Amino acid sequence: MLKRIVPLLVAAPLAACASFDRLDQGLATLEGQNRDVAIARLGYPTEQKEIAGKDVFIWRRGSMFYQPGTYFGGCSDRYGGLRSMSCVGFMPGVTDTRCTVRVIADKDGTIVETDRDGDPSSCGYYADRLQAGVPIAAPDAPLKTRAD
Prior knowledge:
With 148 residues, the protein is of the alpha+beta class. 32% of the residues lie in helices and 34% in strands. It has three helices and eight strands. The strands form three sheets. The protein has a four-stranded antiparallel beta sheet. A two-stranded antiparallel sheet has the order 3-6. It has a two-stranded antiparallel ribbon with strand order 4-5.
């Protein structure tokens, strides 16, 4: 049984790193491209703003939720006294599965910087979009869709 569990415990963190590595590689291919390429590959951004004369495009995915403490099985008095009480349960906590991808373009529309932050499970979606083989058009050429 232990021989089956140990590989899973080792593989889980490595899979998370793989999502970030793939996302970082995909984002690196956007730098120097026109901002329309990022939109064609990632979809319409969740948010767009201007900071210091540059256009910032932001994509967000995932959620954050609070999990209250859960207790089950009641409490037992192991040694006949109130001082030795033990209960079974889970601590309350917050689960954050959000992913944020930022693409920064200069006024000409050329992507000068990319950034990402968040949970690997949600960021994997964007890594897949960037590596799905969506064609990259030249900055002056019209974008091609998959239907073309």
